[in-house]
Design brief:
With 187 residues, the protein is α/β, with parallel strands linked by helices. It is built from 8 helices and 5 strands; from the N terminus they run βαβαβαβαβαααα. Mean pLDDT is 91; it is low at 179-187.
Length: 187
C-alpha cells in the first residue's frame, strides 16, 4: 500500500528550504501532498502570489529537482480560520494521507487529535530560507538566486510579482494618507 504524507504551507514563494523539506519527506513516504495553504488569499505583501501561481512555481521547482511527478500532488486549500475543524476540512479536500510532516507543535497537536501520525521536519537553514526575507529582496529587486530555483525566480519576474508588491506598498501609502486610512491606522 502506498504511504502518503502531507506537507502544508503558504509557499509565498516556494523556496529551496521548502524543496529540502519535501525531499526529506519523500525519503520516508512513497508520495507527498504539497498543500498550498491560504489559497483564497493573494495580492498582499505577506501573500502576494495567487494559488495558481504558487502551484505553477512549486511544479517547476519539483520538476527541476528531478522529483517524479507520480510522487507528489500539489493541491490548493482554503483556510477556514477554525482550528478545531481545520484538519477535518483538509481531510475533506485532499487525497488520503497517512502522515503529517511539520515543525509546529500546535499544528502537530491538531493532526494528532485526528489520529494522524506527525513527523517533525528539520528547519533547513531557516535563517537563510525565510519567506519574508525573500519577499523583501523581491520588492527591492535584489538577487534571490541563492534562495530560489532559477526558473522560480524567472517566473516571479514574468508574473510581475516585484511590480505587484511595489504596487501594494504604494497603494497602502496612498490609503494611509486618506482620512479613512488615517482613522484605521489609529484603531
Amino acid at each position: 500500500m502506498t504511504t502518503r504524507g502531507l506537507i502544508i504551507g503558504r509557499y509565498q514563494p516556494p523556496h529551496l528550504g521548502h524543496l529540502a523539506v519535501i525531499q526529506h519527506a519523500l525519503e520516508q513516504v512513497d508520495e507527498v501532498i504539497v498543500g498550498i495553504a491560504a489559497a483564497q488569499i493573494s495580492h498582499t505583501l505577506k501573500n502576494p502570489l495567487t494559488a495558481g501561481e504558487r502551484v505553477e512555481l512549486m511544479r517547476v521547482m519539483l520538476d527541476n529537482a528531478g522529483i517524479d511527478p507520480k510522487r507528489y500532488w500539489i493541491v490548493p486549500t482554503q483556510d477556514i480560520m477554525d482550528n478545531a475543524l481545520w484538519v477535518a476540512h483538509l481531510k475533506r479536500l485532499l487525497p488520503r494521507f497517512d502522515i503529517f510532516f511539520g515543525n509546529n507543535p500546535f499544528t502537530d497537536l491538531l493532526f494528532s487529535e485526528y489520529g494522524i501520525e506527525c513527523r517533525t521536519t528539520p528547519m533547513f537553514e531557516r535563517e537563510k530560507f525565510e519567506a519574508s526575507r525573500i519577499r523583501d529582496l523581491i520588492i527591492k529587486q535584489k538577487s534571490v538566486e541563492d534562495f530560489l530555483d532559477t526558473d522560480v525566480a524567472r517566473l516571479l519576474k514574468e508574473f510581475g510579482i516585484p511590480k505587484r508588491m511595489r504596487g501594494i506598498i504604494e497603494s497602502d501609502k496612498n490609503f494611509e494618507n486618506t482620512n479613512v486610512g488615517s482613522e484605521l491606522a489609529n484603531l
